[in-house]
Amino acid sequence: MFAVIKTGGKQYKVAKDDVILVEKLIGEAGVSVSFEEVLMVGAEGDLTVGAPMVAGASVAATIVEQTRGDKVIIFKKKRRKNHRRKNGHRQDLTVLRITDILAAGGKSKAKKAAPAAETKE
Known about the structure:
The chain is mostly beta strands. The protein has strands spanning 2-7, 10-15, 19-23, 32-35, 38-43, 46-49, 58-68, 72-78, 83-89, 92-102, 111-112.
């Protein structure tokens, strides 16, 4: 069984016991989270596509760790003007292990996933 979920503005195809990297979610390692925005659920020869979401479906996952992505270098230059700006960015990420895919009507004990609160530093 697989599902397509939406989190952090991106879509992920997941199956049970998959480990995925998503944009940062609030929670410590070991906390269970649930994704209610399920776009599609599929099994052996059976496919349910939502319009836009599958009613009653959810995906349960456990947070493995909070980490950061690779550094991305941003370099801006204006030719013949002696103008250069170099900047870097590392995205905060959450590693998730998918524990269960619940089709319409299933119940989950996990908390609903909440995106990280944006803070200005």
